[in-house]
Amino acid sequence: MQVRALAMSVGLVALLGTAQAREIPGGKGPAASDVPMAEHAARVVDYTLRATLDPALHTVHGEGSIAWTNVSSQPVTQLWMHLYLNAFKNQSSVFMRAPIGGFRGSTLPKEWGTIDVRKLTWNDGATQHDLWAKVQLRRGTDEDETDAAIPLPRAVAPGETIALDVVWDDKLPSIVERTGFDGSFHMIAQWFPKLAKIEQDGTFAHFPFQHLGEFYADYGKYDVTLDVPEAFIVGATGVVTESRVEAGRRIERHVQDDIHDFAWTAWDEFQTRKETIDGVACTILYPPGYEGHAERELATMRFALPHYGARYGKYPYPLLTLVHPPASAPEAGGMEYPTLITTGGGSYIVNGVNLIELVTIHEFGHQYFYGLIASHETQWPFMDEGLNSFAEAEAMAAWKGPSNFIDLLGVSVGDSEGHAERARHFAHDDRVAQPAYAFGTGTSYGALVYSRTATILETLRRVYGEEAMQKTMGAYARRFRFQHPVPRDLVETFQREMGNEAGEVLRDALFDKGWIDFKVEAISSHAVRVAAGIFDRDGKRATTPPDRGSSGKYEGWVLVNRRGTLHLPVEVELISEDGARTRVPWDGSTDSIRIPYAGTSALRAAVVDPDQRVLLDEDPENDFATAAGHSGGGAPRTLERSTYWAELVLGAIAP
Ligand SMILES: [Zn+2]
Fold first, then answer.
1. Domains of the chain: total
2. Among 191, 253, 580, 617, which residue is least crowded by beta carbons within 10 Å?
3. d(CA 3, ligand 1 centre) in Å
């Protein structure tokens, strides 16, 4: 989903730290690029659909067939089907009555949306079973109609494939969330009767359309013929295999294998730019007057396609369509579907504020963390939004350096630092690893699922090194391509590739609100005086008088505390009056460490984690301490929170 909320709440962090890779402790085993990667998904459900758009009435008439295979180990006696457009049918839907605000817009649609199934039959050899006659649209007294139970007249055996015929009608809502129409612009997502994902044990992972979570489905082949008025430009999932104009209608057939959803858009004002990037046919659909934005989106893809391909395995589809919605329909922006993403940003975003690039790269990243690695978004949203936010920040920094988010009028913000700042305030509120609907507010959901996950992973990258991180995330992305991994798969991959300690940090931070705060508690040093007293040296006894003056040497100590539950290795830098700097590594295994100091001048200051590798650190302002009598001026790190600036700059971007 989109990242606008991130932009609104990010604080500015000046003087950004840059991570230098450290040696790899877990550097055993093959490189990530050697990890075998599936070429195709197991085919569970195939949709062959035809959809006819009436752009004046904002309706879609659909019909077609669904071939579904029971890939579980158990006989199945009932199907579950998602009818998500009914989320916009009335205010009693789970979606509309969600108390959660503060993330995506929460206004009511000006026009309601519905999906009405007219026919659902099972052609079982000689018999046509009317399945819709027995549908249970609602659960008890709950009026939500987005999650339908469909009893079957007989059990479907494990391994058996059944053929369903379906006819339905959509009334699209006015766009308030993700899908709908605005004038003649139509963004058509979550629009067809869609079977819930079957699990190995024969149960279906079915759920109502949630405000903050929706994606989880089986892979298959989509063969969808779209029928729109001739004047409309279409963008859709999948390769165009047929295109013709017939009696004033434009008819396009889109076919794609190895995907788990299908979305499309149609508008009679779309402008088009096309470019083949890294072997992928990219199309930008954008409103008139947005040529500059289209160019920035293309430039983003020129970087992102090869970058993500190297890190997480080559993008496997032959095409990618980027839809920039009209300014009057911003809620259609910032969404992800297989081979089709929606970006966004008003016409006034200036160069130096990389919001268009950031949103584009984020939504493209979902082709991996959602599309190719199809975790359960409602149950474990951090597994796609969080991993994807890490990948977004990593890519932005690799592309544009430390000031990769904002570099304007002396204001400098990195995406990773923005995530860290946003996440810091919510670290103790909720677990990161929990279902989307369990978060108290949309704000904490956004801060923890997106930003805290990104900060945890960025911390591991900085502490254990770029190479170890690429190897670990690369192995995860390749091993679970076209799979549906769960959190254990992720944690085990980190344990195996990056080492047990890194795996522990990841698990504790995700599941147990793990936190850490390094603090320079105290520093002390004194001049070493020539010792007084009786000394036996070289067979002679000598008594030295008191106060023989300074020896020219200084000694002392620095006390550093590790507050919190996470254990991470760190460095402590000791800074002397004469400018000498010494770095001391600490494995962070204990609660505190007293580091001895010896030098030729007094100890002036000490800083823990001078390279800012532990981005998770809860209070960066106590990472530095000076000796008594010294001000903090000239501190090696100045952390500046300019929330006012953030509001001013980002508020103008994303009203
Ligand atoms: Zn997202």
1. 3
2. 580
3. 7
Distance 73 CA to ligand 1 centre (A): 33
Cα(602) to ligand 1 centroid in Å equals: 51
Query: How, if at all, do strands 319-323 and 280-286 pair?
Result: parallel
**198 located within any domain:** yes
Asked if 501 and 520 sit in the same domain, the reply is no
595 and 498 within one domain: no
**Amino acid present at 25:** P
Burial label, 561 (beta-carbon count in 10 A; 0-12, 13-18, 19+)? middle
Measured in Å, residue 629 CA sits from the centre of ligand 1 at 49
CA 30 to centroid of ligand 1, rounded, Å:
30
Q: Residues 471, 556: one domain? A: no
CA atoms within 13 A on the CB side of 409: 6
Domain boundaries, position 85:
44-218
Taking the centre of ligand 1 as the mean of its atom positions, its distance from the CA of residue 87, in whole angstroms, is 20
Identity of the amino acid at 65: S
State the alpha helices, DSSP H only, in 218-336. Answer: 291-312
364 Cα–ligand 1 center, Å = 9
Spell out which residues have Cβ within 5 A of ligand 1, the ion: 1, 385
Ligand 1 centroid–CA 625 distance in Å is: 39
**What is the DSSP-derived secondary structure letter of residue 179?**
B
pLDDT tens profile 141-162 = 999 999 999 999 999 999 999 9
Average pLDDT over every residue of 562-577: 97
CA 421 / ligand 1 centre spacing (Å): 19
Domain boundary among 218, 249, 272: 218
The phi and psi torsions of 429 (rounded to 5 degrees) equal -80, -50
Mean pLDDT of the region 348-358: 81
Overall pTM > 0.70:
yes
Q: Tell whether 49 and 174 lie within a shared domain.
A: yes
Structural domain contains residue 653:
no
Beta bridge pairs of residue 170 = 60, 115
Question: Do 1 and 85 fall into the same domain?
Answer: no
Q: How far, in Å, from the CA of 164 to the mean position of ligand 1? A: 33
Claim to verify: residue 85 and residue 210 sit in the same structural domain = yes
429: which residues sit within 8 A by CB, 6+ positions away?
Answer: 440, 444, 448
Write the pLDDT tens digit of every residue in 75-124. 999 999 999 999 999 999 998 887 655 555 556 788 999 999 999 999 99
Question: Cα separation of 304 and 300, whole Å?
Answer: 6
Same domain? 490 vs 527: no
CA 162 to ligand 1 center in whole angstroms: 34
- C-alpha of residue 436 to centroid of ligand 1, in Å: 13
Å from CA of 279 to ligand 1 middle: 25
- CA 74 to centroid of ligand 1, rounded, Å: 34
DSSP per-residue string spanning 406-465:
EEETTEEE-HHHHHHHHHHTTTTTS-SSS-GGGSSSHHHHIIIIIIIHHHHHHHHHHHH-
Of 128, 147, 131, nearest to 139 by C-alpha is 147
Question: CATH number, domain at 51?
Answer: 2.60.40
Residues 364-379 have pLDDT tens digits of 999 999 999 999 999 9
Q: Which residues pair with 156 in a beta bridge?
A: 76
CA of residue 336 to ligand 1 center, whole Å: 7
Residue 578 placed within a domain: yes
At 454, which CATH number?
Answer: 1.10.390
In a domain, 366, yes or no: no
Length of the chain equals 655
Are 617 and 569 part of one and the same domain? yes
Q: Of 218, 249, 282, which one is at a domain's C-terminal end? A: 218
